[in-house]
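One example given next:
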Amino acid sequence: MSKVHSADIAIFFAAVTFVSGAAHAETFGLPSASIGNGWTYDPYGRFVVAYQAFDDGQDTTSNIVDMSTSTSRFGFYLKRKDTDDGVSFQFETGLGLRGSSKTSQTNTPDLFGWDRKQFRQVQVIYRSAFGTLRAGQGSMATDSIAELDLGKTTVVAKSNISEMGGSYQFRTTGGVLSGIDLGDTFDSFDGDRKFRLRYDTPDWNGFSIAAAYGEEILTSGVDDTFYDVALRYATDLGRLKLSAGLGNSYVDVAGGATDYTTAGSVSVLDKYTGLNLTLASGRDATATQPSYVWAKAGWDADFASVGVTRLYIEGFWGSDYVSAGSESEMWGLGVMQRIKRYNLDVFAGYRVFSFSDTSATQYQDGEALQIGAHITF
C-alpha cells in the first residue's frame, strides 16, 4: 500500500492555505501593465491541488497531485491595448507539479519536476477579419474537441480520463498488476499541443473551421508529422445554449503509414433549470480500431449564495482497446462548488473502472477518488 508522505501533506496544507488566502483577498490577481507604444502585458494563471486515491481491488495508492485535466500554470499575453486584432504573443507554461496522470501503484514522481514538456503555448498570433493565424508551440486544431462541456466540470470530470489517472494499472483477480492501465483502456482521442502552424476561420453564424500542421519538438526522437482539421459550432438560443465540435487528427509515422483518429463532443445547457448534458465519442482507425461513447448529465443548482453548485453523473463505454473484443466501462459522480467572488472551485469526484478482454485473464475493478480546489487568476 502506498501512503501520502508527510512532506506531501505539509505541502498540501500549504497549498490549501495559499488558495484560501487568495480567495480571501479580493484584490488577488496578476495585474496588467502598459509596456509602452500602446502595448500591454496581460498575465494569467491557475493553481490546482488535489488529494487522489486509487483502489485497485487489493491496494490503495494515495498522493497529492496537480490535476492534469486543468494543469496549474502561468502565462501572459503581449498585445495591443484595447484590441484583440493584429499581432500578439502568448507564453504559457505548466508549473511542473506532480500530475494526476503520472502517479501509479509503481511510480510516484517528485512533487515538483519542471522540464521543457511543460511549455504549453509559445506562439505568435495574428487576428483579423479573415481569421486567426497561430505559429509556434500550442494547441492543434483538435485540442479539446472531445471536451466541450457547458457543465464546466472538466477539472474533475471529462472524456479524457487518461488525464485524471491514466497511469494506474488494473490488477488481475490473481492479485498481479496486469501492465494494462487506464490510459490504455480509456483514451478519448482528443487532440494535443505541438509546434505547428494553425489557422481558424472567422465565425460564420456560429460555425468555424480550424486546421493545423506541425511536429513534436519537446520530446526527443519523435520524427512524425501531425496535421488535423476541426469543425466547431456554438450558439445561444435564449433558454438553450449549445456547443459542439468534430475533428480528424492524422499522424504520418516516420518510415510508416498514416494513423488517424476521429473525435467530437456536443454539450447542451438549459439556462432556466441548470440541467445540462454532454456527449463525447471517438474512434481510432488503426490497430484494433477502438471506439467509445462518454456521457455526463449535470445540474447547476443555486443551493448557496456564494455560487453555483454543479452536480453530475457520468459514464464511459468503450470497446476494442488494447485488444479486439475488449470492453472498457466507467461510471462516476461528483460535485463542484463555485465561489464566484474569488474564481475558486472546490470539487470531489468518484469513479469506478472495469475492463475485460477475450483472454482467460480477469481484472478487478478500480476505484478513484479526487478531492481538491482550483483557482484562476
